Amino acid sequence: MNHTTTIQHPGEDKSNDLRQRVARTEPLAQRTYTSSLALLDKSAGSYHWTPEGRKLADFSSGVLVANLGHNPTRWWKRVFDYLGVSNLDESQEYTVAAPLTAYNAVSSLEVRANERLLANMQAAPGGRRMEQVLWAASGSEAVQKALWACLAHDKKRSVIVATRGGFHGKKGLAGAVTGSETDKERDPRVKFVSFPKVECAEVELRKQPLDLEPYQQELEKLSNEVGDRLSCLITEPYLGGGGSYHPQPEYLQLLQKFCRDHGAAFILDEIQANFGRTGPMYAYTHYGVEPDIVCLGKGLGNGVPVAAAVGRADIFQALHYGEGSDTWSANPLSCAAVLATLDEFESTDVLARGQALAPIIEEGLLRLKSTGVIEKVRGEGCVWGIECAACGSHEPEEVANAVVEACYLGDQQGRAIHLLGPLAGKVIRISPPLTMQPDELREYLDAMHGILASLRLKLR
Length: 460
Ligand SMILES: Cc1ncc(COP(=O)(O)O)c(C=O)c1O
What we know:
Blueprint: H1 13-25, E1 42-44, E2 47-49, E3 55-58, H2 61-64, H3 73-83, H4 108-123, E4 132-136, H5 139-153, E5 159-163, H6 172-176, E6 190-193, H7 213-226, E7 230-235, H8 249-261, E8 265-269, H9 283-286, E9 293-296, E10 307-311, H10 313-316, H11 332-347, H12 350-368, E11 374-380, E12 383-388, H13 396-409, E13 416-418, E14 427-430, H14 438-458
Parallel strand pairs: 3-13, 5-6, 5-7, 7-8, 8-9
Antiparallel strand pairs: 1-2, 2-3, 4-10, 9-10, 11-12, 12-14
Helix pairs in contact: 3-11, 4-11, 12-14, 13-14
């Protein structure tokens, strides 16, 4: 795979021109690798359109962001209404509306977003500790702020525990709790414990009860090593970026009990799981846990950048003036987007619609195994991973990139699918908007089956 050559696809003059121009004007580091490098010109609901006008069904929701679909009209209207810009009068040089920046001040949208988000989280089973919101401009920052608060809460406790193979972001402490001890130069404050990957390597295995004994032993060993220096433990409801491993709920319950027994904070990173992705509004509900801090992001603003750490006031209050502040956190546009997204989730049946898609996705993905291209299927709700097999002389990683490209180019009937580049080398994420129409989802899963079957014949 040559990552330095600009990707070009036949018959896409406009897209190819834009691909070349972006390659000249941005470094490669701006995006993760993908074999399709789709040019997304317009989007509505569960679809994108390329500059050539080719329609792509979106099996990614951005990157688990557009849970309500792309550009929902009523949602946009709500965002504009909250900001007070619904009826712009161009004869006026300026419009009296919500400020776009309220740095070092407070906007009423921020207060309303705090209250609405807390009420929504507290109403979900497991949300009792959701007392304050510490806003952030990205998921990594929300994780960083949550960890800062825990370390400040009791300065004698300096050890952070993370679950091996997780993804919490790339920057600062979020990067330090990502991956494992062998990846790179590590922050000595971070210790890793095992996440059950083998026991939930396939959707069927996850239905078996988990033998907690080895995990318990590992935690006990860690506790003997670090004693009362344990500050907090951070984990994800499921390993997302780490390759789609969805654990049995008793595993997260064990981690929570360990935290409670040792006076450490239990942080659940729901940045990609929140707002209905796994079925309920928050994953903590069906995993049967009550976290001290929950990190939110992605679907929280349905496309407007916003993230937050939400949780115990006594922990957050350990941070002093300015220690959790920056230019964009709690900005009014983001708060308007959070309010509009909450409105949609609270006043429509979007959660039930997402839940109804889960069996359709599961069935459609399990059927892909018959093509020989897909080896394993894992997931829940509207977030799934398909692990590619080796085909002929092609390694699973190569096959995964070929799948992404083949789905992008589509079938004879012009049905094409937007997928993200593979995770953990060979796992492709399937995460359509919660609002995709069931018939359309079935149709595109069928199309995917045909595309993969044809691809298998080419992979010798
Ligand atoms: C679970 C989880 N935590 C944190 C992050 C980091 O979020 P961001 O990319 O907004 O920094 C991600 C992003 O994929 C994520 O999936």
